[in-house]
Amino acid sequence: MSIICCTYLAPAAKPLGRSADFEMIEFPFECVEDVCKEIATKSIIAGSLLWTSKTDVMGERKITKRQFIALNPQAILRVELPSWRFIEEGV
């Protein structure tokens, strides 16, 4: 099971070429509470940085690319659940 979170990163931790306030990151946990517990352990956290595009359906995003990412928990400022629904086709 995994969870997709809007993840706000410290400026120095933002991936190059990305200017959004937050990143969509898929973590290998079941809920936001588990992500927060892992952040509190101060151990490196692995996940997938998601690249998405809009679809014709309002409130839906299509995952177009995944990029492995390992984060220092000190770089994570905030995590929250996104309001979008995600679809994936052949990624």
What order do the helices and strands come in, and which of them pair?
Elements: E1 3-9, E2 23-27, H1 32-41, E3 45-54, E4 60-71, E5 76-80, E6 85-88
Architecture overview:
With 91 residues, the protein is mostly beta strands. The protein has one domain (3-88). The protein is built from one helix and six strands, in the order ββαββββ. The protein has one helix at 32-41; strands at residues 3-9, 23-27, 45-54, 60-71, 76-80, 85-88. Strands 5-1-2-3-4-6 form a six-stranded mixed beta sheet, with helices on one face. The model has no long low-confidence stretch (mean pLDDT 91).
Tag the structure with descriptive keywords.
91 residues; mainly beta; 6-stranded mixed beta sheet; 1 helix
Count of all domains: 1
Structural class: mainly beta
Overall number of strands: 6
Total of DSSP H or I helical runs spanning 4+ residues: 1
Write down the overall geometry. globular
Which sequence of SSEs, written as H and E, runs from N to C? EEHEEEE
Cα distance, first to last residue?
17 Å
Helix content: 10-25%
Q: What order do the strands of the largest sheet run in, or round the barrel if closed? A: 5-1-2-3-4-6
Strand content: over 45%
Rounded to an integer in angstroms, the radius of gyration calculated over CA atoms is 13 Å
Q: How is the biggest beta sheet arranged?
A: 6 strands, mixed
What's the average pLDDT? 91
The poorly predicted ranges are: none
